[in-house]
Amino acid sequence: MNIKTILAEHQILETERLILRKFEMSDAPDLFEIWSNPDVTEGTGTNPDVQLDQSKDRIANYFIPEALIVWALENKLNGKMIGFVELHINGDQGELGWMLNQKFWGKGFAPEAASAIQELAFHNLNLNIVTASCNIENTKSSRVMEKLGLKKMANTWAFFHNSYHLSAYYAQTKEDYEANYE
Q: Which superkingdom is the protein from (predicted)?
């Protein structure tokens, strides 16, 4: 079975507190709440949204077309879309990314969602390496990566917001993942 077929079969995933699902246009107000916050978008290379229509465009132009590799995070408690997780695949490697509503930072939602995608990457997609990176000052995301068992490999320079910023680069092999979780 090819990767796209496997991803299509895993468009809805569940964790203890989250439903990972495709984005819908009705998620725009929740996405705007996330993407309009400069504290959230600071390390992303994009400017905060200032109008709801920008978040609608983001859903229509990115999240829906990329539905096989991006999951909206729906809080089971109240049905609110509180963020997203994504997995960009290149050969036998996957790059994890996430963004979360600031109100839900520090509550374990990011590692909970990312670990579901990490399991998909290694067990279902049979990827050999999963990576993730963040602005070096984003200690919260660094902690998520460490909770997932990813190891810091290097600091690299990334260009966004018209200047270079130091990014922390993390990685984990399938072998290390299996040793940690079996």
A: Bacteria
Domain 3-128 in this protein, CATH class = alpha beta
CA–CA distances in Å: residue 45 to residues 35, 42, 94, 155: 12, 7, 20, 17
79-125: per-residue pLDDT in tens?
999 999 999 999 999 999 999 999 999 999 999 999 999 999 999 99
Segments making up each domain of the chain, as ranges: 3-128
Report the SS3 class of residue 144. Answer: helix
Lookup: tokens for 163: 């200047």
**For the stretch 83-98, what's the b/e string if a residue is b when 16 or more beta carbons lie within 10 angstroms of its beta carbon?**
bbbbbebeeeebbbbb
Please state the pTM of the whole predicted model. Answer: 0.94
Asked if 21 contacts 116 with a C-beta cutoff of 8 angstroms, the reply is no
Helices 109-119 and 139-147, axial angle in degrees (round to 10): 40
Return d(Cα 131, Cα 103) in angstroms, integer.
Answer: 26
